Amino acid sequence: MTNIALIGCTGSIGRQAADVVRRYPDRFRFTALACASKAEELFALCGEFSPRLAYCEAAFTPPAGVKAVRDRAELFDGCDVALIAAGGFAGLAYTLAAIAAGKKVALANKESLVCGGELVMRAAKERGVEIVPVDSEHSAIFQCLAFRRDARFERLVLTASGGPFLHKTKEELARVTAQDALRHPTWNMGAKITVDSATLLNKGYEIIEAKWLYGAPFEKIEAVVHPESIVHSLVYFADGAALAQLGYPDMRVPIQLALTYPERLPCAPALDLARAGKLTFLPFPAEKFPCFSLALEAGRAGGTMPTVLNGAGEVAVRAFLEGRITFPAIAETIQDALCFFARERVECYDQLAQTDANARAHAHAFIYGSSAS
Ligand code: MG
Q1: How many domains does the chain have?
Q2: From ligand 1's centre to the CA of 86, what distance in Å?
Q3: Which of 133, 162, 182 is the last residue of a domain?
Q4: pLDDT of residue 191
Q5: Of 49, 100, 236, 278, which is the most exposed, with the fewest CB atoms less than 10 Å away?
């Protein structure tokens, strides 16, 4: 029996994790469920899964038998794995709390590594805690490396669907709406990450994630466009051989595998190659989607810069979803913040939280002309 603390139970990954647990009640059990605001949904999940602990950042009264905790760290009592599926910068505090509690982390929150990679990897090493990727590309790489993070490789290639705007011109991109951006061609995800996939900021984040997870310099990590989302990523080796992981886009596979590896259990329909027919690959259109290059620039600068990138990005994407700014203004907001803030060496979580708050306030002022939120 694997005891799981699920953080972010009402988001897209959280719901699919619930599906996995539902299918294998003899293998998996939720010891704790946590979410940011959807108290009613959390209540229903508590009724179905009877965790010992529940946590909601909003007001919440749990059903009988479930204890509502107010302290994040307490959530990880009695679990074997902390599945961190919270969205945004908020996920980092949970990841660090899980590591401090000495728990294995199945990581679906990319901001934990984008913003806090240095702190997270250092703390995990000190505590002897394993960080298992849930993001589909990083799970694919993990599989191609035979689940060995210290395996030798030459190059990592992350695949990208290219999002809904791959073939749009710059002029067309200036007019796209949030509704257009939310029509992702292959993956069904939350609104924030779907917009991040449309700007290709998401792929920049994933390159930073890969750097931390696999200890690879940026020169050894590339992205290629693969519109069918069947090949989930590839690893190249010294002899020129490349290994890839293939499958229909279905996040339940990497979620379940993070909980069971190296064991594999039935999860999703197997790929029908003849039906898939043709798999295409295209050069990455970095010049048309400046968010990608901004992410790499922040990643290369390191220190607090990726946190600036993310904080400004979260504010810009929300403004775009609310119809307040245009699609190109997402990149402009991020670029302005990256120019404004100076890089600092990462010392601790509180410093990153302050950087995040400063970047948000700055982006808010850039968009709305005042820093009040
Ligand atoms: Mg991904």
Answers
A1: 2
A2: 15
A3: 133
A4: 86
A5: 278
Find the 43 Cα to ligand 1 centroid distance in Å. 29
Report the separation in Å between the CA atom of 346 and the middle of ligand 1, taken as the mean of its atom positions. Answer: 25
Q: What is the dihedral of CA 109, 313, 36, 110, to 10 degrees?
A: 0
Answer yes or no: is pLDDT of 373 > 60: no
Ligand 1 centroid to residue 330 C-alpha, Å: 20
Q: Average pLDDT in the 132-156 region?
A: 96
Q: Give the mean model confidence (pLDDT) for residues 311-321.
A: 96
* pLDDT beyond 80 at 212: yes
- Whether residue 334 sits in one domain with residue 236: yes
Confidence of residue 187 (pLDDT cuts 50, 70, 90): confident
Q: Rounded mean pLDDT of 324-335?
A: 97
214 with 355, same domain: the answer is yes
**Ligand 1 centre from 251 Cα, in Å?**
9
Query: What per-residue string of b and e applies to 241-276 under the rule 16 or more CB within 10 Å gives b?
Result: eebbbebebbbebbbbbbbeeeeeeebeeeeeeeee
Helices 327-340 + 305-321 axis angle, to 10: 150
User: Is residue 277 over pLDDT 90?
Assistant: yes
CA of residue 332 to ligand 1 center, whole Å: 24
Question: Is 19 inside any structural domain?
Answer: yes
Length of the chain: 373
Q: Any idea what the CATH number is for the domain that residue 16 is in?
A: 3.40.50.720
Structural domain boundaries enclosing 9: 2-133
What integer best gives the mean pLDDT of the chain?
Answer: 95
Whether 87 and 159 share a structural domain: no
